[in-house]
């Protein structure tokens, strides 16, 4: 079970976006979570919307063809590790 539910993440992102609480740091402080965690949720929302806030499953479909395609995508599009992870919906950067 994830530490934070998708609904909780959406609630905090929406509260941040509304500006009513006074900024990201204030929202994080109000709910007792690390600012970096909220920043990550906001970035995920901005990149692909609320569906991107769901817990990612481990990637067991990394075939021998998939791995080079990830590297090729990154080189062609000049993306950061973080952008590449988000694009392919990977668990973390160490998978690249």
Fold blueprint:
Elements: H1 6-18, H2 24-31, H3 35-48, H4 66-77, H5 81-88
Helix pairs in contact: 1-3, 2-3
List the main descriptive attributes of the protein structure presented here:
96 residues; 5 helices; mainly alpha
3D structure, described in words:
The protein has 96 residues and is mostly helical. It is 57% helix and 0% strand. It contains 5 helices and no strands. Helix 1 crosses helix 3 and helix 2 packs across helix 3. The longest helix is centred in the middle third of the chain and has 14 residues. The model has no long low-confidence stretch (mean pLDDT 82).
Major sheet, described briefly? Answer: none
Question: Roughly what percent helix?
Answer: 55-70%
Query: Total strand count, please?
Result: 0
**Would you tell me the overall average pLDDT?**
82
Low-confidence stretches: none
* Rg (CA only): 15 Å
Number of helices: 5
* Residue fraction in strands: under 5%
Distance between the termini: 25 Å
Order of helices and strands: HHHHH
Shape, principal axes of CA atoms: elongated
Structural classification: mainly alpha
Oligomer: single chain
Short description:
This protein has 96 residues and is an all-alpha fold.
């Amino acid at each position: 079970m994830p530490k934070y539910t998708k609904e909780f993440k959406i609630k905090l992102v929406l509260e941040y976006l509304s500006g009513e609480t006074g900024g990201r740091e204030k929202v994080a402080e109000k709910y007792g979570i690390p600012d970096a965690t909220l920043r990550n949720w906001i970035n995920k929302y901005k990149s692909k919307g609320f569906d991107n806030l769901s817990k990612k499953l481990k990637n067991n479909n990394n075939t021998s063809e998939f791995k080079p395609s990830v590297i090729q995508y990154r080189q062609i599009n000049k993306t950061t590790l973080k952008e590449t992870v988000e694009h392919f919906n990977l668990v973390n950067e160490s998978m690249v």
